[in-house]
Amino acid sequence: MANVGLLYVGAVLFLNGMMLLGKVAPKAAAMLNLFVGAMQVVFPTVLIATAGKDTRTILAASGLYLFGFTYLYVGIGLLTGIDTSGVGYFSLFVAVMAVGYAIVNFRILRDPPFGVIWLYWAFLWFLFFVLLGLKVEGITTYTGWVTAIEGWVTGAIPAILLLCGYWGTHTPVAVLLAVFAVVVFGGLWFMVGPGRHVRHRPGGVAAPGRP
């Protein structure tokens, strides 16, 4: 169930990235945020309700609400045009929690690749805090590219591999993901960071997230 949710998290991240890059209108992106946000509230509720005394399942499912609430917040914000500071500061909270879930995956769940993926999400949510909470619009294009790329690297591709039974919890995969993040996101910063091909943020908000 969580893996299905992860697939659609990839879709909404990609769409939100395209919105920040000016390719998709904010209201056009709102509906998918609401659909995926609702999914990411229902799925963890079912998982927790049926987990019994399986504390590892409850622990893993608890982080899904961070994504569900984020996307619902974003979808409503895109439709109503409310100020972005609320979702921006909520993103700061999520970024801090994502670091905690990364440690959980490394130390308790023994899944180093998803430990790194949670760090990806911590970085992305921190970007949303800076963009939407602090309103530093100079990072709009950079955040858009990071969001779109993470939609594939942390959402769609891992979800397909998990659903097909090909995902592994091997350390080399985690190292590869970490190297990819440093090289690609570092390179992007020099290409489209503040002062380089900056575009104005579209009216509304967009945001990150996992299942």
From TrEMBL:
Transmembrane segments: 6-25, 32-52, 58-79, 86-104, 116-134, 146-168, 174-192
Organism: Actinoallomurus vinaceus
Classification lineage: Bacteria, Bacillati, Actinomycetota, Actinomycetes, Streptosporangiales
Localization annotation: Cell membrane
Protein name: AmiS/UreI family transporter
Family, per entry: Belongs to the AmiS/UreI family.
InterPro entries named in the record: AmiSUreI_transpt, AmiSUreI_transpt_sf
Membrane topology qualifier: Multi-pass membrane protein
Domain of life the protein comes from: Bacteria
Keywords of this entry: Cell membrane, Membrane, Transmembrane, Transmembrane helix, Transport
